[in-house]
Amino acid sequence: MKKIMLVFGTRPEAIKMCPLVKELKSRKNVSITVCVTGQHREMLKQVLDTFGVTPDYDLAIMQSGQTLFDVTEKVMEGIKKVAGEVKPDVVLVHGDTSTTFAAALACFYMNIPVGHVEAGLRTYDVHSPYPEAFNRQAVGAIADYNFAPTPLSRDNLLREGKKPESIFVTGNTAIDALSTTVVRDFDHPALEWAKGSRLVILTAHRRENWGDPLYSIFRGIRRVVEEFPDVKVLYPIHLNPLVRKAAEDTLSGCDRIRLTDPIDTMIFHNILARSYMILTDSGGIQEEAPSLGKPVLVLRDVTERPEGVAAGTLKVIGTKEENIYREFKRLLTDEKEYDAMSQAKNPYGDGLASKRIADVLIYGKMMN
Ligand code: UD1
Ligand code: UDP
After folding, report:
1. pLDDT band at 87 (very low <50, low <70, confident <90, very high)
2. The pLDDT of residue 83
3. Is residue 145 part of a domain?
4. Going by DSSP bridges, is the β-strand pair 277-280/114-117 parallel, antiparallel, or unpaired?
5. Contact 3/89 with Cβ under 8 angstroms?
6. Does residue 222 sit in the same domain as residue 200?
7. Fewest beta carbons less than 10 Å away: which of 7, 179, 254, 367?
8. Nearest Cα to 314, choosing from 285, 276, 274, 275?
């Protein structure tokens, strides 16, 4: 019986790996082990609870203020132990986090084949996003199976010399998750609070935005909110204390900006689906928004998700206060631009990515 082990550790990996865990567990003649690194704690638990996934192993590595060294070292040591015990035939990792990189590297050192879910996204600048762009490329160098979400990500891998037979265009499992979370009837106190206003969702946490860029983003946003009495901003803040401090320093004390703890994914996706627009530096939200038809101003200098830009949903606006102020205001006042960005076009697949990945692992090819 083929032994498949899945390793993940942060909120976005969990959101996009849980549908795959469920799909693989529904198949016969495979043995599935879920190992979480616990790079995130509360934010990981929220997702595991939402999807009803119970890990077999939890490395529980998170500490407040952890560095890239802490995470990388602990994940490598932990995976060495767990993989040594489980002896998997293949280990699946997701995306671009330190968990992803360190787990893949540990498997490479142990000669265990690696499957990379969400492979081939590129900015070709290892400093942006940092260190994620490096992590994703490094895992690409190691992976035996490359599950590319789009033809564009496949082409990136082919250009880098990956063997065509190792690449499978599956769609993104983010869409698998979204198709199970968004429901028709939904209400929530945050939506009650925003009734009669335009609800803007804000999230920001990227490492390269820590410090001045975050302060500058938040100042630009606050200036706009103060000019538009019909706009309310909901910001579920990442649990990183650095991010929380920047948000509280610049955004608190305005009754049309609500700062909250991270929101359960099921609830968050339903709020996103009912929002007016999104301001974010998140990767995953850039994949979700085109399906939901919600315009996104991307608070970064570059994106590894150009499909959403081509679809017209995403606009990359950087982190400078004046740009944030101008572009946010433009989207609130320019109806034509807003309508053009609100068309629901989903370049990220049909919600069957997990099935395709499972088929490849079990039958050696995609069945649909
Ligand atoms: C990590 C990933 C990033 C991903 C993000 C998703 C790396 C290098 N970065 O960044 O790619 O976009 O997750 O959110 O892998 N914390 C808590 N509780 C939690 C989670 C985090 O308290 O449940 C706090 C801790 O103080 C922790 C800090 O946040 O030290 C930073 O967490 P870490 O995983 O190191 O970095 P992220 O910025 O979350
Ligand atoms: N998300 C969530 N609750 C929140 C904020 C975000 O469930 O309060 C979800 C969001 O819908 C997306 C994922 O978390 O699926 C994105 O995670 P994050 O922004 O932490 O990481 P990134 O995608 O940037 O790596």
Report:
1. very high
2. 98
3. yes
4. unpaired
5. yes
6. yes
7. 367
8. 285
Structure tokens at 62: 């998170």
Q: Tell me the residue range of the domain where 130 lies.
A: 2-171+352-363
Residues 287, 208 share a domain: yes
Cβ-count burial 174-186 (b if 16+ within 10 Å, e if not): bbbbbeebbeeee
CA dist 196 → 142, 203, 260, 273, 292 (Å): 51, 22, 20, 16, 20
- Long-range pairs, 305-308, Cβ under 8 A, ≥24: 305/121, 306/152, 307/150, 307/152, 307/347, 307/348, 308/347
Which neighbouring-strand residues pair with 34? 6
Q: Nearest 5 degrees, angle CA 73-CA 77-CA 81? A: 165
DSSP character for 366? -
Q: Is 94 a catalytic residue?
A: no
**For residue 345, what pLDDT band results from cuts at 50, 70 and 90?**
confident
Same domain for 310 and 162:
no
Contact 179/356 with Cβ under 8 angstroms?
Answer: no
Q: Answer whether residue 217 is part of any domain.
A: yes
Q: Burial code of 292-330, b = ≥16 C-beta within 10 A, e = fewer?
A: bebbbbbbbbbbbbbbbbebebbbbbbbebebbbebbee
SS3 357: helix
Q: Which helix (H) or strand (E) holds 232?
A: strand 231-236
Q: What is the DSSP string of 35-95?
A: EE--SSSHHHHHHHHHHT---SEE-----TT--HHHHHHHHHHHHHHHHHHH--SEEEEET
Q: Report pLDDT for 362.
A: 97
DSSP state of 161: T
Q: Compute the distance from residue 41 Cα to the ligand 2 centre, in Å.
A: 14
**Ligand 1 mean position, distance from CA 63 (Å):** 10
pTM above 0.85, yes or no: yes
- Closest to 8 in 3D by CA, of 33, 34, 30, 31: 34
Query: What's the chain's average pLDDT?
Result: 97
Residues 200 and 126 in one domain: no
Pocket of ligand 1 (CB under 6 A): 10-12, 39-44, 64-66, 68, 71, 96-98, 131-132, 205, 207, 238-241
**Cα gap 108→329, rounded to integer Å:** 48
Q: How far apart are CA 93 and CA 99, in angstroms?
A: 8
pLDDT of the residue at 207: 96
CB 161 within 8 A of CB 137: no
